[in-house]
Amino acid sequence: MPLSWKSHARSILTGAVLIPASMTVTSAESYISVVLPQGSLANDAVELGPDGKIYCTYCWFGNETRQILRTTPEGDAEVFATLEPDDCTLGMAFDGNGDLYSANLATGEVLRFAPDGTRSTFSTDPLLDQPADLEFHPSGNGDLYVANHGNGAIVFVHPDGSVETFYDGPLVTAPHCLTFGTDGELYVGNQDASVTRISPDGNATLYAQLPGVGYLDAANGRLFACVLSRHRIYEVFADGSIATLAGTGSAGFAEGPGDTTPLHSPNGIIVSADAHTIYASSGFGNGLFRVDLTDAASSPTPEEKTTGSRLLPVSPNPMSERVDIRLHTSTAEIAELSIYDAQGRRVRQLARRELSAGIHSISWDGADDAGGRLPAGVYQLHLRTDSGTDSRSIVLGR
Q1: What is the pLDDT of residue 349?
Q2: pLDDT tens across 307-354, in order?
Q3: Is residue 264 a contact partner of residue 287, using CB atoms and an 8 Å limit?
Q4: Going by C-beta distance under 8 Å and a sequence separation of 6 or more, which residues neighbour residue 296?
Q5: HEC states along 135-166?
Q6: What domains sit in the chain, N to C, each tagged with a CATH number?
Q7: Tens digits of per-residue pLDDT, 166-215?
Q8: How far apart are CA 169 and CA 183, in angstroms?
Q9: Is the pLDDT of residue 63 over 80?
Q10: For residue 110, how many other CB atoms are within 10 A of its CB?
Q11: Pick from 108, 153, 288, 300: most CB atoms within 10 A?
Q12: Cβ of 273: how many Cβ atoms within 10 Å?
């Protein structure tokens, strides 16, 4: 199978041999270094080039500076491409010729940059709707997969610039990022901070719920996530749980051990082939961090790993006609999901059945048990399982 330029560049960066997914480890410790200091105008997507340099986009509405920066791992930076004032280039990917492709959210285009920074338009197909992130298919067939933030579809662009829809369904909503795993699955980050996994045949499932938004990247059989609002970088596990890899929860530009050193709003992320090195941009601090992970194999501590059955954040909230209520069950168990009104009366039982371990979605149309439309107001979702209970508020509008 031909290697993508991303995989090749990851190997150049670390001197690593590509390791099969079966050899994955869970890092217990990390060390944070600052590659580009605060104010360096690098705040969004991060990509590794075939030259071993790190490429960072800078796009912030209200700021006239729009550019793609590139830097060595040591922090020797230069402007790779200066963009137009109406551009907003986000996700990036390199092809086998060393050309850089970027999703232009503001203009609905996929742009292409030659190795010298010369710009051209690769695709302006009508199926592109606020493209936010992109990545080449790992098979090397030349198809470029794109997350449409506007209409929520995942599309792919053929080498000739034509576009086809890959997935357009309810489990992807306003996606802002995507990445291919070593298992061939596509992982999509949604605006409500959920992660959707899509199989090669287009079958989508809810994979995890993160505590906030940021880019995803996968390497060596592992999935990593930046969360701007939490100032942390996480690892995401197959059961939907997460563990903190770096950051304390407070914002800062500093160097030191990952569990005691702050990060500032990590946003874009790229991971080396061996999953030992992470580069992350600072969404609100405008800089670039490097996080080195140890080889120590251990499980995340109980306080880091999400446990127990629980309700996931509701979206949309307020709701009007219909909402998909997502919940995570830690084991196979009986789950009862009900709706209560402001007086504490149960008005609807949505489910009472055994659910397998994982993330599930149950719909509510705003009606009571008799099928009548409930009045607008604040209601409580209540989940009861053998492992505990959980509640969330939801606003029903009309």
Answers
A1: 94
A2: 467 787 676 777 888 888 888 887 888 999 999 887 778 999 999 999
A3: yes
A4: 25, 27, 28, 29
A5: EECCCCCCCEEEEECCCCCEEEECCCCCEEEE
A6: 5-16+27-293 (2.130.10.10), 310-396 (2.60.40.2550)
A7: 999 999 999 999 999 988 899 999 999 999 999 999 999 999 999 999 99
A8: 22
A9: no
A10: 25
A11: 288
A12: 25
Dmax (CA) of the chain: 67
Helix, strand, coil fractions of the chain, as percent rounded to 5: 5, 45, 50
Yes or no: say if 267 and 38 are a contact pair by the CB < 8 Å rule: no
373 Cβ neighbours under 8 A, 6+ residues apart? 366, 367
CB–CB of 202/158 below 8 Å? no
Model confidence, pTM: 0.72
Specify the DSSP class assigned to residue 319: B
* Cα 341 to chain centroid, rounded: 35
Q: Would you mind telling me the total number of residues written for the chain in this entry? A: 398
- For residue 155, give the amino acid letter: V
Q: For residue 35, report the phi and psi dihedrals to the nearest 5 degrees.
A: -90, -50
The pLDDT tens digits for 115-158 are: 999 999 999 999 999 999 999 999 999 999 999 999 999 999 99
Q: Which residues, at least 6 apart from 141, have a Cβ–Cβ distance to it below 8 Å? A: none
Residue 340 CB coordination number (10 Å): 15
Please check the confidence at residue 1 and state whether its pLDDT lies above 60: no
Nearest to 155 by CA among 178, 139, 182, 138: 178
Residue 104's SS3 state is: strand
Q: Does residue 219 have a pLDDT over 50?
A: yes
Share of the chain above pLDDT 90, in %: 61
Q: How far is CA 383 from the centre of its chain?
A: 27
Cβ neighbors of 364 (< 8 A, separation 6 or more) are 319, 322, 323, 325, 339, 348, 350
Sign of the dihedral through C-alpha 47, 53, 57, 58: positive
Three-state SS for 114? Answer: coil
CA atoms within 13 A on the CB side of 84: 10
Q: What is the pLDDT of residue 263?
A: 96
Tokens 């030191």 sit on residue: 256
State the residue for tokens 């409930």.
374
Query: CA 152 from chain center: how many Å?
Result: 14
